[in-house]
Amino acid sequence: MANWTKYQFFLASMMLVTGSLNTLSTKWADNTKAVGIDDGIPRKFDHPFLQAVGMFMGELSCLLAFNILYFYRKKKDVPMELGDQTFNRLIFLPAAMLDMCGTSLMYVGLNLTFASSFQMLRGAVIIFTALLSVAFLRSRIRIYMWIGMMLIVFGLLFVGVSDVMFGGTSTGTGLNGIISGDLLIIMAQIIVATQMVYEQKFIMKYNVPALQAVGWEGFFGASVLGLLLIPMYYIHVGHPFSTDPNGRLENVYDAFAKMGHSWQLILAVVGNIVSIAFFNFSGISVMKEMNATTRMVLDSCRTVVIWVVSLSVGWQAFTWQSFLLQSFGFVLLIGGTFVYNNVIFAPFLVRHNCLRPEDEDRLSESEPGILFSVS
């Protein structure tokens, strides 16, 4: 860190700030009450699918950024890595559909549970990605990776127990809503893991620039989910999955009416779109300018920021019991992530001359990994 350039500090700061704002702005919108179109009673902004469309619009802007960067460098005669540009754009459609399902489930879950739990429970994606990679990519799970996965499982249990024991009075959804939200977030990680394995198996071979790949997934995701908002208006669900007076799964008219009555909602929704765009850009840039470990550390730091802000603004009630349980769960999650990604064992063995540096690099050649998705 002491050797970072000013540009690297800027990228790291951007990733930390925009990554935190992405979750916080979504939760801020969820907790903001405004008058809709039906009965004149202020209600919470319960529109997870519209928010997911906003997220895809943020990803779509990465495609615009890629093209601007391309034409700028072309004009300045500066070389730019374009990879293989002969690929069929439709290869991103399945990945976008998986992203759409996973993101929608997570946003519904976030509406029911805490922002800090949402961020921590997303760590389950490592477990599902590893298992699916073994089945479909013929990857090998090494001993230290199993240890990391076990630590993550125990960390998830502590976070879940904290929500069940001490979270029931902290939200308007009640204990059942919190449990449902937590389970939806974990279920969504199976879909996200499937997306990552698909990307690694079918997209990685084309050597598509990451910014361009994120942009195309955003294009397909925004297009399809935007169209699905129409039938969602006619689908009726019960509480706690909808607070709409008519029980609609998604009511776009009500969402825009609420935004028209609340500048806070406009700021939160726009903040979500802008933050996801800059977070994707900065996350990819951190990977290129520094390394995956730095990105992992910054991602862990944004979990702390989200947790602290949630407690500070009253989105999550503070009790010493829940704080200690979540703290211990968080430490296990971070520790498990570091162990799984070989940040601990291999450097320790190299430092003590038990492993050669070239062997350390060889360890990660067939390991399950994450490709484009950084949100």
Describe this structure in words.
By secondary structure, the protein is mainly α. It has helices at 6-31, 48-75, 92-112, 115-121, 125-136, 143-166, 174-203, 210-232, 252-260, 263-289, 292-312, 320-340, 345-351, 357-363, and strands spanning 33-35, 42-44. The chain has one domain. The chain is 70% helix and 2% strand. The protein has a two-stranded antiparallel sheet with strand order 1-2. Residues 370-374 have low confidence and may be disordered. Its main location: membrane. It comes from Ridgeia piscesae. This is EamA domain-containing protein.
Question: Can you describe this structure in just a few lines?
Answer:
Residues 44-159 form the EamA domain. This protein has helices spanning 6-31, 48-75, 92-112, 115-121, 125-136, 143-166, 174-203, 210-232, 252-260, 263-289, 292-312, 320-340, 345-351, 357-363; strands at 33-35, 42-44.
SSE layout and pairing:
Layout: H1 6-31, E1 33-35, E2 42-44, H2 48-75, H3 92-112, H4 115-121, H5 125-136, H6 143-166, H7 174-203, H8 210-232, H9 252-260, H10 263-289, H11 292-312, H12 320-340, H13 345-351, H14 357-363
Antiparallel strand pairs: 1-2
Helix pairs in contact: 1-10, 1-11, 2-3, 2-8, 2-10, 3-7, 3-8, 4-11, 5-7, 6-12, 10-11
Keywords: Membrane, Signal, Transmembrane, Transmembrane helix
Membrane topology: Multi-pass membrane protein
Organism: Ridgeia piscesae (Tubeworm)
